[in-house]
Amino acid sequence: MNLPQEQARLLIECLPYIRRFYGETVVIKYGGHAMENGRLKQAFALNIALLRYVGIHPVIVHGGGPQIGRMLENLHIKSTFYEGQRVTDEATMEVVEMVLVGTVNSEIVNLLNLAGVKAVGLSGKDGHSVRAEKLLLAPDNAGGQTEQSAQGAEIIDLGKVGKVAGVDAGLILSLSADGFIPVIAPVGVDKHGETYNINADSVAGAVAAALKAKRLLLLTDVEGVLDADKKLIQSIPAREARILLADGTLKGGMIPKIRCCLEALEGGVEKAMIIDGRVENCILLELFTNSGIGTEIVHSAEDTGVGEHYPSFEA
Predict the structure, then answer these.
(1) In the chain, domain spans
(2) Nearest Cα to Cα of residue 269 among 296, 233, 246
(3) Given pLDDT bands bounded at 50, 70 and 90, which one contains residue 139?
(4) Confidence band (pLDDT; 50, 70, 90) for 293?
(5) What pTM was computed for the model?
(6) Could you tell me what percent of the chain has a pLDDT over 90?
(7) Residue 49, Cβ density class (10 Å: 0-12 exposed, 13-18 middle, ≥19 buried)
(8) Contact 167/210 with Cβ under 8 angstroms?
(9) pLDDT at site 84
(10) 26-302 belongs to which CATH class?
(11) Is 293 exposed, middle or buried (0-12, 13-18, 19+ CB in 10 A)?
């Protein structure tokens, strides 16, 4: 088969997936290596542009931890961490907001605009889109951390670190309906007007649930969820994901990602995916191919089995 015929065949194979997602919302958490490598940044912007041009409504929530760290270092502001989370005082919060909203968000918006689509930057403070509450933690018995639940337990105060208390999707929906791609920085505001830094995965999951998104995609720096033999698990029903959380199989940064996927499913999202953002065109490979490239978290009743990200379609 010559090259033009092969290209035409690939386009036809994509048609069922384009038809499936046409008019639907896809929330994408953008972070990790994909935000720092020039080639991957360009590919990300083109992937998002293609989604928009085939009638899909992408909404982006981004991180920015490494960029924040570099700026704090340049300003000689020392960072301290508790179980991987940055303790955020007033001075640090000013830098966090400056970097996430003023630098990272603006860069992503510019990349998308250059790719030929209309993007607009937001923080969760705009229109009170992301309502926050202060996050208080208490150490658990395994030496990790849990949200404070028992009165009198030792409290770990992370400062201006928050959790999502609610999402008002009105502004996001209006922008999307008008043809814009919302790009959201994970900064929220509480009922007193206080600003909080929130985990970007958590914001993405909450936004996806509020929008009843068809898909939630989390771009990471790993292949996906791995089993005990370090092999990729391609599909996990929600009930099994909860078991993996409870028995300690999941470690480190994968824990909040799985939790936000489960919360998104509970909020009405059809499927959530954890995919390797280091793979060029990972978004298109996940959405428009039969096997996908990462790990999907699915409703238990809809478990399709390992390796079957999507049912077969007739073009």
Answers:
(1) 26-302
(2) 296
(3) low
(4) confident
(5) 0.87
(6) 59
(7) buried
(8) yes
(9) 67
(10) alpha beta
(11) buried
